Amino acid sequence: MTDRVIASRPSLEQVTAIVDFMEKHPALALGQLRGLEGRDESKKLWFKLTRIVNNITGPTRPMKSWIKYWADKKSTVRSKVLGGGGDPNNLCSNIEKKIWDLFLANDSGKNRGAVKQESSFTEDSFYNEDSMDQNHVESDPVLAFEEPVVDVEERQIGIMEKLLKVMSDQAAAMTQLAHASHVNAQAMERLADASQIQARAIDRLATTFETISAATHDVRNAIVDIDATMKRFYSTSPT
Questions:
Q1: Pick from 77, 74, 65, 146: which is nearest to 113 by CA?
Q2: What's this model's pTM, rounded to 2 decimal places?
Q3: Cα 184 vs. chain centroid, distance in angstroms?
Q4: Residue 137 DSSP SS3
């Protein structure tokens, strides 16, 4: 793959801008602007969108290339859903899911003709270089849009979104673990305080027993002294 092709891939900011613009102009998004007035309105909107997207970080493309991108993008999203049995959960990014929900979920094939009409807008009869804004220079040739390349990029975006969610869940789990550890540490501190109180109580009880033992010894000695005194008294008394 050449650097030229890689550089032609729209950035996520550009794709988001396109989808947001189409959300504001659903008739343009669905290719429903028909007739002379509709075609004129469509050209004006596409010129406006081209200027917006080309001023965002990413490749600069001519208008007909962005028209082709949008038609191909809708076709790709539709094919993914239909190929997956009609389940939009097969879509790999939030951008694709938004395109499906906003523009394709309810068409039931009735707007397939609009895709052909959008494709016809890229023909020279629609794309008039002389009608372009004079400040917009189309110096580079239109690059063929390779949908598989974009699919890979958007799959990577989808993977990154899932990775970010996993990392967010992991951070939440780590926060809960830290909180549990803090609670456990507080419990251990309270247990240590209780152990110290218990140790001091045991120490005071031991001191009390020692005091009682000493007092008992003194009482015993006093009794012995009294007994000796009484014996001497009786032994010296006259008969």
A1: 74
A2: 0.48
A3: 30
A4: coil
